[in-house]
């Protein structure tokens, strides 16, 4: 193998493209598309982030500024959390647009997130979300096809391949040169991505993630470059090569992604939240109503407490029995709610896993999953948001319940409906509402994200190697024919 | 006709045509089988939910001692069942909720809850018949037609072919037309079978066939306009592909951004926060302040609106309603602007036939945003009906009894008026 020959072929190919108007126009259009998608997505996500963070601040402030009142009122007053987009959402917003942005947290209930950005968006059909991820995953391969479909087939068509062979350029060198030339275009196309990754870095994304994210996209485009020259080398004519490549693009980028999800939807049907809510209510009938301390479900708790403090009646307890009941029932209820919520999330995760089995069939699918996991804009990150929100909910509700149990007297608490003075005494001061924790955006751990995306990276490498092998064997076949 | 049959026979001798037709046939069959399955799935899920929800109501009701408790603890299932054509265009149903459970509390706090399916699958999208027709069909047509004229020229048969045919240059149109007819047939045969299986009214099938046919003809014309010039096949393919990209992706994207900038929608977070503040503030306000705001809308309860105790159910439900009243301008604006955005996207679709087909099919299948808003309006009406039912008992004009609850409104889906 002679590196000089490879570079010679590559440089010649570049000169050829510079002269062809089709290549130049396609490149300019593609570059403009990528830039437009980067800028518009960046602006959109930035606005979204600003709006959600300011709502979050407002929600926290209004909670903490509530006047003195009964702690259980605050349990029902509740709190709102807003889902902030991940730093890398400026490149791949992923499921951000498809998941609710705001979630109401209150006692005794787990609500679902409301207002996904798509809810009020103008509906413009299935290919109208031009994000940088879409541009790199779907549109750029098309550009590379238009530039590179004839690279090898053209030499064959014109019979120049034979001449090259006599000038002691080996078939592999020729193919490699063409591939290097095309990869050069891909490398230039990656520059805007690199710039926006710097923005993501500044917003706090880890360097490892950003570097690997870039590497993943580089390998993906590399896959296409080798695939294009490989299929080109197998084609007798440029027109056949183009047809071949366009059909390949259609199958890999447009059909395959939807195929996997469709199969996953059939293989694992979801029951949905209402169904599990109904199941929770029927299971709950054994847990007891936390508002009613006389509910028979709490009689064991009562006798236990009476024994522990060695007293005869709940009035004599040093703690407020109602608060204790509220705490105990919230704990049992939450365990039950979490069990069902975990079930639902596990079902969804299984669906996604089934869909990801099909990633082997298409590098475009593998890069999609890779990109989502890396950018933290996938299903798991959404689940993480739901879990974080639930943890926050449980935390403030139980803190309020413990105020209820420790700071309020039982005698006042049961009379507050009829006695105004008792009612005043059951209010705790506003400073207590500072117990509410902040809700920062937390990405999944680095190792989880890497572990999720590693298989996808391997699939990409597998495609890279396979198409390289296809290219080299294709070239050897051509030259054997020429010799013969 | 004889020409057409001859050209069809000729087209079928080419392997690339046969393979493309097979691919189209399989995609069509797969997408429709999935659509039928998905609709069955939704129907069976709905049947389970309905019976579960009924059991829940039957369990809860006898335990209630007063009108307030009955109103508080009874949950009502509302839903938007899939239409008979939903299998052809699944539309927004995997993204926007088509079922809600509501109760007598402030509706604005409940109606935006989303019983959602897997967001990652929704993001990737499903392969339904609509996707095949609006997005893939043009590509299949381009694939079959881009090289027709250029190949004849390349092989120096063009002049001979045109001269020896009675139809002159029209022979190439016949050839292209024959291929489109074949493609149309392999796509609609599975559709007709699916239509039979689904039990939908046969004439409603025309609502789907018409856009498929028109879309196919549109691309036939575009392909002819491009390929009949004296250009190479490769150039024709690049131009046609570019056209496809512009009308399926670029026009919708630009249109969408413009429409969204033009018609601004109120932020959902603001609706929720305002509603919550209003409902909660009521606990600390003088009760008459709440009641007078309530009576502005419901003067008929003036004689019953006195509040004596520190807690009365009628006051509780009055402030729930006042919470809704407070955000009504915002929520009305939200639905109006969503409808406004959609209407303007209708104009945009004039420049994008694939988008037009997508809108046409989802409209016929009642899986578009209009249908979703219609469903939400239906839930609002039902909630208003619940209030009308409960208020006489809550305000004490009528006496609460479990028997009186026999008349409790039951949700039934709103029927679309065509």
UniProtKB/TrEMBL annotation, chain A:
Which Pfam families does the protein's record reference? DUF3526 (PF12040)
Cellular-component GO terms for this entry:
plasma membrane
Residues spanning the membrane: 20-39, 133-153, 180-202, 209-234, 240-260, 454-472
Q: Where on the tree of life does the source sit, at the highest rank?
A: Bacteria
| UniProt keyword terms in alphabetical order | Membrane, Transmembrane, Transmembrane helix
Question: Could you state a single Gene Ontology molecular function term?
Answer: ABC-type transporter activity
Q: PANTHER family per the record? A: ABC TRANSPORTER PERMEASE (PTHR43471), ABC TRANSPORTER PERMEASE PROTEIN NOSY-RELATED (PTHR43471:SF1)
Protein name, UniProt field: DUF3526 domain-containing protein
Give the species.
Exilibacterium tricleocarpae
**Biological classification of the source:** Bacteria, Pseudomonadati, Pseudomonadota, Gammaproteobacteria, Cellvibrionales
From TrEMBL, chain B:
What is the protein's species of origin?
A: Exilibacterium tricleocarpae
Respond yes or no to whether keyword Membrane is given for this record: yes
Instruction: Kindly indicate whether the keyword Transmembrane helix belongs to this entry.
Output: yes
Q: Which Pfam families match?
A: DUF3526
Q: Give the UniProt keywords, A-Z.
A: Membrane, Transmembrane, Transmembrane helix
Ranges that cross the membrane: 16-37, 176-197, 203-222, 234-255
Q: What is this protein called?
A: DUF3526 domain-containing protein
Ranges in coiled-coil conformation: none
Its ancestry begins with:
Bacteria, Pseudomonadati, Pseudomonadota, Gammaproteobacteria, Cellvibrionales
